[in-house]
Each structure stands twice: as C-alpha cells, then as structure tokens.
User: Fold this.
Amino acid sequence: MTLVNRPAGRRYGPVSHNLVMGRSRTRRTGERLPYFDQTVRIGSWNSPGIAWSSPMPRLEPLIRSFARSESGAVTVDWTVLAAALCGLGLASAAAVRTGVGDLGAEVGTALSSASVAVLSFGGDSDSGWIPLSYTAERFAELTDIFSEYSDDSLESTYASYLLAVEYALSTGDLAGAAVFLDAAAAAVAAAAARGPGISDQGAGLNALLETYIEATA
Assistant:
C-alpha cells in the first residue's frame, strides 16, 4: 500500500468506489485511476489530502501470454493442468457414485491385495491391473475411451498422468495419486490392446506404483 501526499491548493472531493469496466473514478474531479487502483482520500476541500493507493496487478495480460505461448515448459503446464482436471472429474464422479467413505473403502480394499502391476501387451485388453480408485467396470469404460485416441495422443496422455502421479505423491495426495495411476494404467491397456503398446511398456507406471505402495504401507 502506497502513501501519497497530495499538494495543497487542489480541491478534493469524496471518492466513488464503484468500479465501472475495471476503472475507478472520483465523483467530482472526474479523475480516472489505473485499472483496479482503489484510492481513499482524507482531507478537507481546501487542505492537503493524503491518499492510500493500493494497486492490484492486471492478470489478463499474463493469462493471454500464457495461452499463446508455445514453449515446452508451458506445454507441460497445460498437459499437467489437463490431467489434473480430468482426474478431478473422474474422482468427483467416483465420489458421487459411491460416497467419499465408500471410495476410501474401495481404495483400501484394492491396496490390501495390490502388487506391482503386471501388464500384458498383446491383443488382450485385460491388462491385469487392479484398480486403486475405480471399479473394474469404470476402469474398462476409461480404457474404451482411451482406445479412441491416436497413438501420439495416447502417449502424451500417459506421460501427463505420470507427471500428475509424481506431483500427487510429492504433496502427499495419495487419493489423487491413485486416480492418476488408474488413468495411466487405462492408457497402457488401451495402447496394448491395439498394437505394440506404450513406448516404455508401462515401466514408468510400475515404478510409480511401487512408490505409491510404499507410501501407503
């Protein structure tokens, strides 16, 4: 917050705090202030005034720049964001379907018999993955959805889920990690069902699953 000393000899009137199209203006002087700059003046009509100016940065240019950027780092940010939104939707759907308590019970049941995933890469769509956060039916539905992706899209989707798992584990969000692990496994299963499979053959997924199991032990 900036303290501004106003010179004597200038008339100051009360300030209107109404924001019109992102601008604030004084009611009597008609002075236009910068975007999102709210000012409160104290002083009589013919005496020096003091103004507290508290400007807020405009986020719109930053957002537009972010949206237009084609740099690799921003591409990763968008990928992680897309994965996070997708995972949030899937987790929300599961919670609505069963309730938060039942969802936790499903995760606990899956963990009780979970081991490092054994994924098949032939033509069989049955991957051998034990879902951590979904029912078998929901996992199959997600696999079917991923089967409609192109090879490149499936690879990038798989990679984005691995990044999301890593982030969830690093922040202690085990429920989120379980959702993203299942999504990544569904991508692996979809790729295996139609060809050679994901480029790393699920190695990254299995490594993160081991970390997840250790964290929940």
